[in-house]
Amino acid sequence: MSLLSKVFMLFFLGLIAYALSSALYFLVHDQPNSPRLVKALTWRIGLSLFLFLALMLAYALGWLQPNY
Predict the structure, then answer these.
(1) What is the pTM of this model?
(2) In this predicted model, what pLDDT tens digit does every residue of 29-51 receive, in sequence order?
(3) Cα separation, 56 vs 33, whole angstroms
(4) How is residue 65 annotated by DSSP?
């Protein structure tokens, strides 16, 4: 696995963690049906799906190899 792919994965995992933590903040500090909470959770789901699809594509193209 190349350094670029590791940096890519860590960057997106950081973005996902940031979106999740901001959603927790909005859940605690905003009103119950806050649009900011929904937006933060939508970003988390979108980023997670993008990372998953990017990893599947990289595996299919042979850029990533499993460590057995």
Answers:
(1) 0.83
(2) 988 778 999 999 999 999 999 99
(3) 35
(4) -
Distance CA 48, CA 56 (A): 12
Backbone angles phi and psi of 10, in degrees to 5:
-65, -35
Helix 3-29 with 35-60: angle, nearest 10 deg: 160
Tell me the C-alpha distance between 22 and 1, whole Å.
31
Structure tokens at 29: 């500090």
Say how many residues make up the chain: 68
- What are 9-17's contacts with CB under 8 Å, separation 24+? 9/51, 9/55, 12/47, 12/50, 12/51, 12/54, 13/51, 15/47, 16/44, 16/47, 16/48, 16/51
